[in-house]
Amino acid sequence: MLQPFERSSGPDPYSIHRKLQDSMQSLVGIFRTEEDLAKGIAAVLELKREAKGVRVEGSRAFNPGWHLARDLTNMLLISEAIARSALLRKESRGAHARLDYPNPDPSFATVNSVATRDGEGVRVTQAPIPKMPDELRSLLELEPAGVKC
User: Fold this and answer.
1) What are the tens digits of pLDDT across the range 54-80?
2) Tell me: the pLDDT tens digits for 89-103?
3) For an engineered disulfide with 27, which of 36, 82, 112, 129 has Cβ 3.0 to 4.6 Å away?
4) Over the stretch 8-65, which tens digit does the pLDDT of each residue have?
5) Domain 3-137 CATH (choose: 1.20.58.100, 3.40.190.10, 3.30.160.20, 3.40.50.2300)
6) What dihedral angle (degrees, nearest 10) is formed by the CA atoms of 26, 30, 31, 35?
7) 49, burial (CB in 10 Å: exposed 0-12, middle 13-18, buried 19+)
8) The whole model's pTM is what?
């Protein structure tokens, strides 16, 4: 945890954070394409390499740069998971909008995307949505008088 203090050179955590925000906004934002998502994943992987050499200045007492240096690891991991999940989902549904796949695909309504660590990276697979237990399904099927669920 103290390695960022020991480095005399390297990027500061704020510059990496800014690049991550810019990449996610412009390449993995609201409207996505396969090309942009692939570029977004490449950008995140490059930032992960860059973040390994991050340096901070000052002391350990209330040092937001040091906190950000530690947080970057998780931010980059989650950003990779988001981008890889979006790349795998070749449809538009809800808040996930793919310009290259503008319509919903019924097959994606039956699966969840599952992101797991794979070494230092992320692997995304799809798993079937578990069947809803009958007692829960019966609750959803009940419609009180005059109320449509």
Assistant:
1) 999 888 888 999 899 999 999 999 999
2) 999 998 899 999 999
3) 36
4) 889 999 999 999 999 999 999 999 999 999 999 999 999 999 999 999 988 888 899 9
5) 1.20.58.100
6) 50
7) exposed
8) 0.84
Sequence spans of domains, the chain: 3-137
Task: Note the residue count of the chain.
Answer: 149
